[in-house]
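Title: Prediction job returns without error message
Component: structure pipeline
Severity: low
Priority: P3
Assignee: unassigned

Description:
Job completed but the reporter wants confirmation the result is attached to the right record. Sequence as submitted:
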Amino acid sequence: MTKTKIWGFIKSYFLITLGLFINALGWVAFLIPAKIVGGGVTGLASILYYITDFPVGFSILIINGILILLAIKILGAKFAVTSIYGIATISAFFLILPQFITGPIITDKFMSALIGGAIAGVGIAMAFINGGNSGGTDIIALIINKYRNIPPGRIILYLDLGIIASSFFISRSLETVVYGYVVMAVF
C-alpha cells in the first residue's frame, strides 16, 4: 500500500467513526431521554430499553449480530466484514455516551425530535459518505432485495414506519408516534 492509500484509509475510518459518534450522540442526548422512537435497529433497541431498561448498545449489538450472521450466509462475507466495524463502533458509543449524558438536555419533545433527528442524520450520512454503515435494517433490505425486486430504500422506509408505529404500544400515545415520524423526516 502506498502512503496515499494508507492515509485515505485512515481518513475514511476516522470520518466513519466520527459520523457514528455524532449519530449516537443525537440518540443518547436527545431522542432516548425524550422517549422518542426512531427507525431502524436503534429504534427497536430503544423500544427494548423503554420496556426493560436493557442498554441500547447491547441490544444493537445482539440484533445486528443476528443480522450479520444472516448477511454472511445470504449476501457473502465481504458485505458482513464492512458492517462489523460500524456495528461494533456504534454499539460502543451507545454504551459509553450514557455514562457522560445522564439526563435530557432539552425538555421539549418536539425540539428533541428536531435536534436529535438532525444530529443523528448528519452523523450517519457522514459514515455512509465515507463507506461505512451501522448494519441494521440495511441488511434486511438487501436480503429482501436479493429475492424480490423491491428497492432497498422502500424496504427501509416500510420497516422504519412499522418500528415507529409500534412505539404506540409502549407509550399509548399517538403524539410519541408523530414525534418518531418527525425524527424520521428530519433524519
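Comment from assignee: result matches the submitted record. DSSP finds nine helices and no strands in the chain.
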